[in-house]
Amino acid sequence: MTKFRHPVFTGVHLERMEQVMRDVCASFETELREFNGEADHVHLLVNFPPKVAVSRLVNSLKGVSSRRMRREFPELARHYYRANKLWSGSYFAGSVGGAPISVLRQYIEQQKRPV
């Protein structure tokens, strides 16, 4: 979720963010299976081994994406000027080891993308 829940992302931002998130996941030897987002948050389906700490992965995803997005899209600055952060400190992570990947993929694909 973005800081102060500002609706900051457009389709162009989300396309670039997906690539940044894929790069971060690859550096952790994990796989970003699905990505989707809205103007104020993103959804990720990540396949990762038990040796990867969820908190470390999330912190890296948020940190790297924040730095790269702010560098590549300076217009985002107007949304984070008070805190100098793109993301809020919170996140949700859930384990879905028993759910079929097709059901999870369908859920993420159905999330609304901004126009």
Tell me what the structure shows:
With 115 residues, this protein is an alpha+beta fold. The protein is built from four helices and two strands, in the order H-E-E-H-H-H. The protein has a two-stranded antiparallel sheet. The chain is globular.
Spatial shape: globular
Beta percentage is 5-15%
- Rg, nearest Å: 14 Å
**How many strand units?**
2
Biggest sheet strand line-up: 1-2
CATH topology: Alpha-Beta Plaits
Q: How many domain modules? A: 1
CATH class: Alpha Beta
- Total of DSSP H or I helical runs spanning 4+ residues: 4
> What is the distance, rounded to the nearest whole angstrom, between the alpha carbons of the first and last residues?
18 Å
Would you identify the regions where 5 or more consecutive residues have pLDDT less than 50?
Answer: none
Report a brief summary of the structure:
By secondary structure, this protein is of the alpha+beta class.
Please describe the topology of this protein.
Elements: H1 11-27, E1 31-37, E2 42-47, H2 54-72, H3 77-80, H4 101-109
Antiparallel strand pairs: 1-2
Helix pairs in contact: 1-2
